[in-house]
Here is the input.
Amino acid sequence: MIPGVSYRRKFADLSEQEVLALAISSEEDDARIYRTYAEGLRDEFPASAAVFDGMATEEDEHRRLLIDAHSARFGEAIPLIRREHVAGFYARRPVWLIGNLSLERIRDEAEMMERDAQRFYEKAASVSTDAATRKLLGDLAAAEAGHSRTADDLIAEHLDDDARDAEGRSAHRQFILTWVQPGLAGLMDGSVSTLAPIFAAAFATGDTWNTFLIGLAASVGAGISMGFTEAASDDGEISGRGSPIKRGIASGVMTTLGGLGHALPYLIPDFWTATTVAVIVVFIELWAIAWIQNRFMQTPFFRAAMQVVLGGGLVLAAGILIGSG
Here is the structure.
């Protein structure tokens, strides 16, 4: 291949047979994508899986009709032409990425798939000068619009209010297990465990820059440690807590941020100004932790505040006393 030269065909250069072949391969791809969505959702969201099973069946039916049309007009040999062979044709997200998508995002992706196909065929039909090709493209656009209506009917059939509520609760629970719990544990560890070394260093040295460096090292080190520990502690297969990589990232990032919150004020050159700001940040962090526990973990706010703020305050005092000694 010559660098800088595109080997994609322009849509305007395709013959009617090639347009039909492109439609057939696109329907095949979309059916496979919907079935992949269904398999990925079947255990946790069976009602949504049934929706995507139905949409895949619809794609199979349209593919069958397109193949029949091709056989009648051009014979049995269908040219091999796919989306990636045509310049400007809509692309599809690789199916292996769906493991990182939420249920609502997968539904949005499916809606976008149908909308992209419909819009493309409508635009192609509007610029076509061949009557037969224009009619074919218009029929394909109408078929894609029909897919969207079919999707709405399937959702209405399989996703009643009870099913939606159940899937919503399941998705919320998964969000808590995968992101909130590890992130909260990291934030607590980063905020509380770094208090003593940072404030001990501050009061022992009186040097804001060295205190910042110690706080930065403690925060980053704690973040790396917590991230790897969380990721290695549970692969999520049995516990259902989700991807260990996601949990490790949530825990590691929040641990680092928890420590950096009261380390960054020591970039201020004046010691007492930096320390005052750092103490204020500490109590904001501790109250934020108590709020998160109350909001997502249903821990009574007063109890959460007593546990976190009191515990954090004791660690802060210990760091100051040790540094002052």
